[in-house]
């Protein structure tokens, strides 16, 4: 019987070995994947015990911070937002139940202090569980102006500092109160106007005439045109997809490229587009960043790629056999985000150099020492400095005497371009304004979109841009 | 050579130290709640184990020295974890450990020779069956299973005691019939079959195990009874095909039950795909896996894991009973989890070693069977909470919250130590005498 006993023992010991192996699998091999699963209370609880870092504006206003609370003798932290909904979309939320968005998600590792040697130091009890602070490029007065100017009507403002790529305002309306996410998520998500959507980086709209800035860039860079190139408008330009006419059916006869830009003459830009062809226009689009995800420091799923889409699929910028004339005036299934259009003006304002847009300027630990510092990151040269200067001049004309006069600021030179894209409903438009100021020494590049309005880019979007630029340039009376 | 009882006392020290260290860890985890409250209880438990040790010194001085320290270690970690989940649970459990200690001492005092059990095997077997029937008839249903009988304010799981009685019966019965069972007399469909007179009761037993699953709605006990039965059949006959055929029959029965009982189907689907329904059917298991993952290699330490939510509910339902292993493994990590498993392996290694050392068939079967009860039970529940096998609601010996289980298991240990003492005492006396010849070589 002893042999049976030994075999039974070995069988059962084998069972325990199997238990050990599987236990090791769950606790070591599969542990990371399990921790990252949505709704894992263990992970959420661990993060609740961390004094999550703050998110600050460039001028030191606290957008998000942590407040300690004692629960059953344990210090736990909850997120507070002293500025309310001011920069709700950029900051995002960090909710135990709903997960994380915005900077709270992108920089979670830093905010929770899980970077560098911190976790080891903590394990050894040499360091408190405190996360690092994020110092953003956002300027509270500019952000405030953007939020106020937008009001409740759906739309977005993206403002970028042209020399650094720093995002100084990122506003989307309607907005939400991040503090209410914990308690009211369902009702916020269900509200009309999708307040949780960041329209600045994730809302796509037909660019309308603002796209003529891109076409003009391609035209000037091609060497085939200058601002004084002459055109003769008959009021209509024939394309394989049907004739293109001007806004209000107007006919402009003899004019220069500069004037075509100022008055947003469709027929002339259609002609230029057709002459340049898909390859040349596509190359300029690619240089501006169309067709690629803008490299901003926000979660991927919140940043949408701008470009041409068919059945939800992104088409190459230089797709052949397309109606290039229509693309040149911002039609033909072009869908762009305000962030992408802000990048376009940023490049022009920065002598043709496109920079990566960036929200966080530096990260500091609680001792105040800098963990990470952002330096401007060039994506590429979209146009020569000369082309950029010529574009700036043409855009200044738009604000001085063209469709964008509502964006003018007394005593300052403003460059811009309006756009009015028709929606399916007649009389309802998506209104655009993109521009920068001051022209001689650009401090702010801005893109504004107002959804579903009876107004035009010149009447509803330009005034919003004016308020935002005004706030950025010193808020004169 | 160090005398066994001195050895035992020495090995009780690390367990005791671990207990106090664990209490300190729990106390300091909530810095502003440092309390000396559990200390009297801790000393009381220490006293219980010392009393058991003293009883062994007097009544069974030659018994195995490692079994009691292993039991002590597991009991102590269980108590600390229960204290950490809810101090009142640990207080209850400490009382039951004391009662278990009393039963342990009583067994040593009242039963100097366990072979007296062999004489009463049929009465004991009938008693065991009666306890099960009583549970079926008078039982109260808790959590969907009918395992408890209410006595006054207390509920008692008679099934725990029944399983020991049935092991005693099987040890006696198989000791008597093992020759008959080991030699097939004919073949049915190519399978060698022993005579019906010997096999009949065996088949009845098989059916009873399956009936238990259906009537008591308790898959775990059914599996446990059956596993122990197959193990003892194998020990008695040395015929592996018994295990194979028995396993096949049980699998067939289990499949039939699976097809008929929706609750079992839910259990199995919750086991195969817990993440399909993480808030419903898979909830317990998913939470258990999350807790294991959070523990990692070393864990945050006792008292420092996330086991109890703000509102006082445990993150895993039935944490203090079925999922006590997950609780320890999340706070002490893989290291602690493997430590516990090694504790159980040590336990069964000592148990089977006692069975090997025993000098007569009944003692071998009794010790082997009781050891199998503890080992299979630990395997079933740990395997359940780490998703090796479907979750069955059996208790983790010495650790799960529950009086019936704790008291019964201390009784089992007492019997094992009596067996151990008898064989060693006799073995020492008969060193130069010829070994008792076994009827059938296993």
Note down, in words, how this protein is organized.
The complex is a heterodimer of chains A (477) and B (442). Chain A has 477 residues and is an alpha+beta fold. Chain A has a domain at 141-177 and 194-359 and 375-472: Beta-lactamase (3-Layer(aba) Sandwich). Helices cover 37% and strands 22% of the residues of chain A. Chain A is built from 17 helices and 22 strands. In chain A, helix 8 packs antiparallel against helix 17. The longest helix of chain A has 28 residues, at 2-29. Chain A is elongated. With 442 residues, chain B is mainly alpha-helical. Chain B folds into 2 domains: 1-110 and 280-442, no CATH class; 115-260, no CATH class. Chain B is 70% helix and 4% strand. In chain B, strands 1-2-3 form a 3-stranded antiparallel β-sheet, with helices on one face. Chain B has a two-stranded antiparallel sheet with strand order 4-5. In chain B, strand 2 and strand 3 form a beta hairpin. In chain B, helix 1 packs parallel to helix 3, helix 3 runs antiparallel to helix 4 (87-110) and helix 4 packs parallel to helix 15 (403-429). Classes of the chains: A alpha+beta (477), B mainly alpha (442).
């Amino acid at each position: 019987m002893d042999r049976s006993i030994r075999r039974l023992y070995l069988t059962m010991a084998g069972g325990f070995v199997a238990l050990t192996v599987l236990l090791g699998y769950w606790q070591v091999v599969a542990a990371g994947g399990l921790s990252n699963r949505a709704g894992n209370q263990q992970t959420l609880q661990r993060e609740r015990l961390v004094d999550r870092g703050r998110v600050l504006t460039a001028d030191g206003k606290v957008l998000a911070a942590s407040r300690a609370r004692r629960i059953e003798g344990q210090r736990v932290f909850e997120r507070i937002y002293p500025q309310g909904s001011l920069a709700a979309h950029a900051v995002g939320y960090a909710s135990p139940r709903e997960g994380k968005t915005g900077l709270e998600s992108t920089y979670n590792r830093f905010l929770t202090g899980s970077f560098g040697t911190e976790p080891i130091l903590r394990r050894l009890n040499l360091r408190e569980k405190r996360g690092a602070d994020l110092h953003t490029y956002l300027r509270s007065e500019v952000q405030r102006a953007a939020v106020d100017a937008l009001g409740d009507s759906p739309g977005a403002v993206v403002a970028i500092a042209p020399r650094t790529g720093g995002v100084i305002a990122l506003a989307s309306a309607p907005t939400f109160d991040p503090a209410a996410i914990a308690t009211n998520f369902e009702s916020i998500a269900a509200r009309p106007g999708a307040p949780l959507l960041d329209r600045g980086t994730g809302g796509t709209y037909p660019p309308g005439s603002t796209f003529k800035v891109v076409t003009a860039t391609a035209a000037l860079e091609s060497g085939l045109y200058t601002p004084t190139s002459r055109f003769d408008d008959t009021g209509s330009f024939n394309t394989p997809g049907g004739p293109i006419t001007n806004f209000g059916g107007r006919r402009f006869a003899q004019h220069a490229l500069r004037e075509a830009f100022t008055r947003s003459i469709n027929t002339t830009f259609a002609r230029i587009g057709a002459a340049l062809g898909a390859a040349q226009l596509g190359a300029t689009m690619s240089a501006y960043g169309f067709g690629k995800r803008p490299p901003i420091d926000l979660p991927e799923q919140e940043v949408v790629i701008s470009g041409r889409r068919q059945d939800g699929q992104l088409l190459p910028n230089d797709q052949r056999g397309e109606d290039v004339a229509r693309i040149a005036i911002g039609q033909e299934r072009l869908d762009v985000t305000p962030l992408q259009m802000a990048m376009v003006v940023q490049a022009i304002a920065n002598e043709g150099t496109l920079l990566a847009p960036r929200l966080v300027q530096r990260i500091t630990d609680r001792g105040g020492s800098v963990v990470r510092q952002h330096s401007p990151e060039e994506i590429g040269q979209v146009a020569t400095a000369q082309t950029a200067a010529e574009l700036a001049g043409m855009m200044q004309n738009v604000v001085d005497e063209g469709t964008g006069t509502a964006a003018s600021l007394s005593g300052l030179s403003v460059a811009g371009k309006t756009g009015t894209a028709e929606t399916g409903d007649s009389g309802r438009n998506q209104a655009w304004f993109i521009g920068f100021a001051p022209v001689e020494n650009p401090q702010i590049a801005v893109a504004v979109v107002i959804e579903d309005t009876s107004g035009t880019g010149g009447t509803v979007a330009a005034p919003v841009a004016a308020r935002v630029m005004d706030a950025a340039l010193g808020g004169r009376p | 050579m160090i005398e066994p009882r001195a050895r035992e006392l020495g090995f009780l020290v690390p367990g005791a130290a671990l207990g106090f260290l664990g209490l300190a860890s729990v106390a300091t985890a909530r810095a502003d709640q440092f309390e000396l409250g559990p200390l009297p209880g801790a000393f009381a438990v220490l006293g219980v184990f010392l009393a058991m040790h003293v009883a062994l010194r007097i009544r069974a001085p030659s018994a195995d020295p490692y079994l009691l320290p292993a039991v002590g270690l597991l009991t102590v970690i269980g108590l600390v974890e229960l204290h950490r989940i809810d101090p009142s649970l640990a207080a209850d459990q400490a009382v039951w450990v004391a009662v278990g200690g009393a039963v342990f001492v009583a067994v040593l005092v009242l039963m100097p020779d366990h072979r007296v059990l062999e004489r009463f095997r049929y009465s004991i077997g009938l008693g065991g069956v009666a306890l099960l029937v009583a549970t079926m008839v008078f039982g109260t249903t808790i959590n969907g299973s009918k395992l408890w009988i209410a006595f006054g304010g207390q509920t008692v799981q008679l099934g725990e005691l029944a399983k020991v009685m049935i092991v005693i019966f099987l040890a006696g019965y198989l000791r008597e019939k093992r020759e008959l069972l080991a030699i097939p007399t004919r073949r049915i469909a190519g399978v060698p079959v022993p005579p019906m007179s010997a096999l009949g009761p065996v088949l009845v037993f098989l059916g009873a195990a399956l009936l238990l699953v259906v009537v008591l709605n308790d898959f775990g006990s059914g599996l446990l009874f059956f596993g122990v039965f197959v193990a003892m059949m194998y020990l008695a006959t040395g015929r592996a095909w018994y295990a194979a055929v028995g396993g096949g029959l049980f699998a067939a029965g289990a499949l039939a039950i699976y097809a008929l009982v929706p609750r079992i189907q839910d259990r199995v689907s919750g086991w195969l795909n817990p993440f399909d329904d993480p808030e419903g059917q898979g909830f317990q298991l998913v939470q258990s896996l999350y807790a294991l993952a959070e523990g990692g290699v070393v864990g945050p330490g006792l008292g420092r894991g996330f086991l109890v939510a703000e509102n006082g509910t445990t993150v895993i339902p039935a944490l203090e009973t079925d999922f006590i292993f997950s609780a320890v493994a999340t706070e002490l990590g893989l290291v602690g989890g493997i430590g516990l498993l090694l504790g159980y392996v040590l336990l069964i290694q000592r148990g089977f070693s006692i069975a090997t050392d025993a000098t007569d068939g009944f003692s071998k079967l009794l010790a082997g069977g009781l050891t199998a009860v503890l080992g299979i039970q630990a395997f079933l529940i740990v395997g359940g909470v780490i998703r090796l096998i479907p979750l069955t609601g059996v208790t983790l010996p010495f650790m799960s919250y529950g009086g019936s289980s704790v008291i019964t298991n201390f009784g089992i240990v007492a019997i094992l130590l009596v067996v151990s003492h008898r064989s060693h005492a006799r073995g020492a006396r008969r060193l130069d005498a010829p070994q008792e010849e076994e009827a059938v070589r296993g």
